[in-house]
Design goal:
alpha+beta, NADH Oxidase, homodimer, 7 helices, four-stranded antiparallel beta sheet
Chain lengths: ~210, ~210
């Protein structure tokens, strides 16, 4: 796949995982790509925890189900009906979970480029996540980012010490296909916007109907 | 370039910009790649402001210079000496600035996947930034993320309304080369860590010497 094919074929996968093994060299290339991301002050403030254990994954899945209900209870009836059809995680069906954390102490105290923007370290972690996601796509794997969880619950489950923060649980593994259309669009939850709606020249321009 | 070539050749560029024009179809492909990033609840909570105006760029550069001095004043003498040699921005030398902002109201109130993690929207914006960075690399352009600024200053400069947050000023443009080694490593500020130092199996494992 060419670079742009990878970018545009990448999808958030939930229902497509086959559970087949990931060859260790493939997983290594994907994690190496993540680790090659840029980071503020070259702090590389991420850690990657590869979770295979069934017990851990079931415990996390149960927590995610509970948080799914919390969100569902906030919705109006039309949204609730749509949401009921939407799968939000593939924790058990995927081959591994990759939990990505942020360590604010890495490279501290003088992290070059972070004195004015405390969140810059967190931003770096997300750049690594996108590298991982694209590399997995290039390898024919699916990735699904699960965000229906409380950070403290995930921190305790994986012995992640303070002040580290879990940033993502990524479901990773072979898929039977990568869907053409995002699940949320297919289910009528929300449609993608045209680029021109978010593009501005020189200054931010307020637009109606957004 | 293959996908992995793009990932591993990407660099944070500051001193390498030539100021040559970016063909409009190239910039469009790069921004289209950014806009193809995944986002929590398909909220696509980003905006891209392309800044070419010299007056705006000078004003921002002056602010960044002032913030550079703020950071320099925090350093011990050894670090201060190293830091004095490090270029932190290519605002005027690059062809355009692309300012990326986060709009927490996009798709609100019920953003699917954000109820438990308020920062999830901000994370999405960073995924778009990494797509932009890699696409620019694939096009032979350099990108330099400037983070020596106060959000309120940049917000006022570009008329970005509350509650939007500027997330990055990206210097983008043709470069005479992409360095092999990150600037901060070349200057002895900090070295990249091996992947195995940040890789864990099943649970987070505390390690010494980090």
């Amino acid at each position: 796949m060419s670079f742009y094919d990878v970018v545009h074929r990448r999808r958030d996968t939930r229902g497509e995982f086959t559970g087949a093994p990931i060859p260790s060299d493939v997983l290594r290339r994907v994690l190496t790509a993540a680790h090659a991301a840029p980071s503020v002050g070259l702090s590389q403030p991420w850690d990657f925890i590869v979770v295979r254990d069934e017990h851990t994954r079931r415990a996390f899945r149960d927590h995610v189900n509970a948080e799914r209900s919390v969100f569902a209870a906030e919705l109006d009836p039309r949204q609730a009906e749509l949401f009921a059809k939407i799968k939000v995680e593939g924790i058990l069906e995927s081959t591994v979970g990759v939990v990505v954390t942020y360590d604010p102490d890495r490279g501290s105290p003088a992290v070059l480029g972070r004195h004015a923007i405390a969140d810059a370290g967190l931003y770096s972690v997300c750049l690594a996540i996108q590298n991982l996601w694209l590399a997995a796509t290039a390898e024919g794997l699916g990735v699904g980012w699960v965000s229906f969880y409380r950070e403290d619950v995930l921190r305790r489950l994986l012995d992640v010490p303070q002040p580290l923060r879990p940033v993502a649980w990524l479901c990773v593994g072979p898929v039977d296909r990568l869907p053409e259309t995002p699940d949320l669009e297919r289910h009528g939850w929300r449609n993608r916007m045209p680029l021109d709606d978010v593009l501005h020249e020189e200054r931010y321009t307020r637009r109606s109907g957004r």
